[in-house]
Design a protein that fits this description.
3-stranded antiparallel beta sheet; globular; 2 domains
């Protein structure tokens, strides 16, 4: 299958493969064979012996790394929005009908900055890289926080399927381009009264006196003056630009090259919201390749179909703790 740029489309190919295959599973669920300790031991051995690793990462990985969208972190940086509008978390705030663009983009400047332009507070991504850096690896992720690349992963081995907090797109989806927003984000943060701390990162002023809007002239536009929105997949207007299609093609190539190889499909923090992007394709590829292992690391959601139980490792624990165990002897 070809995409807009006449390249192989790994995104669509793998989804179709997953949906087709999962219909053939009877969906009797297993949590793997053996105790958690035994499965962890097995995963250590498989990681050492595998020729290649395909990482599939979801929101649970970033949550384990410290990118929580509610609670203390939300209250620290969005306390004013919470008080005035009753917003309870960053996710729901992204859909709030703010009264004007100046307020909406003030929200998004904070949302972007604190989820895209700072490093994770916990070393989950760097520990994962230490574990797989000497292998032939590729990463497909639904996360949009860019933490893989910030942590040192090879950008040519990454596929962000759902967009990037660091990119805008025109409100006109026919314009198949995205626009970097780093410079704008920093200006918008300054305009609200955030200050640069000793660590070089934006923080609250001591008196917490910040604005909930940006100047009208800071409302972001494309270089041609068109209105913009976030480059995040929420409907059919999501722009898959040349970079997206290049990554999708590389994903297709990686899958094709490792169809029958000794490979681990390493699923990290993928929930049930969009299983067709990572989970179902990983199940399908495991079933069709007897040399493969499906490893699911997730807190309270580690499971596999009974049909691939013998090829599967399911570890129900915080991903950070699991990676610490896996790296202990590495």
């Amino acid at each position: 299958m070809k995409n807009y740029y006449n390249k192989s489309n790994g995104y669509i190919e793998s989804i179709e493969k997953g949906i087709s295959a999962v219909r053939k599973f009877d969906l009797h669920i297993s949590e793997g064979i053996g105790t958690t300790a035994e499965q962890l031991d097995r995963l250590k051995k498989e990681l050492k012996n595998a020729d290649s690793i395909l990482v599939g990462a979801g929101a649970g990985l970033s949550t384990s790394a410290g990118f929580t969208y509610s609670g203390e972190r939300f209250q620290k940086y969005f306390f004013d929005f919470a008080s005035k509008y009753g917003i309870t978390d960053m996710y729901s705030g992204g859909f709030y009908p703010f009264p004007d663009e100046e307020t909406m983009w003030a929200w998004w400047a904070r949302h972007i900055y604190f989820n895209r332009y700072i490093d994770a507070s916990k070393p989950v991504y760097t520990m994962l890289l230490d574990l797989i850096k000497d292998k032939d690896y590729f990463v497909i992720t639904t996360n949009v926080d860019h933490q893989f690349q910030r942590s040192g992963f090879d950008k040519n081995r990454l596929f962000y399927t759902q967009g990037d907090y660091g990119l805008f797109q025109s409100v006109n989806p026919k314009i198949k381009m995205t626009f970097d927003n780093e410079e704008w984000t920093f200006e918008a943060m300054k305009s609200q009264g955030f200050v640069i701390g000793e660590d070089g990162k934006f923080t609250l002023p001591e008196d917490k006196n910040i604005k909930m809007s940006i100047p009208h002239n800071l409302i972001p536009k494309t270089p041609n003056g068109d209105s913009v929105k976030m480059n995040l997949r929420s409907d059919n207007s999501f722009v898959e630009d040349i970079g997206w299609h290049n990554a999708s093609s590389k994903y297709a190539d990686f899958i094709s090259e490792h169809t029958n190889s000794s490979i681990i499909y390493l699923e990290l923090g993928v929930g049930s919201n969009t299983p067709m992007i990572i989970k179902y394709p990983f199940w399908a590829m495991t079933k069709s390749n007897k040399n493969s292992i499906y490893a699911c690391l997730n807190f309270n959601e580690a499971y596999c179909p009974k049909e691939i139980e013998k090829q599967s490792i399911c570890i129900n624990n915080d991903i950070l703790k699991t990676l610490e165990e896996l790296n202990y002897d590495n």
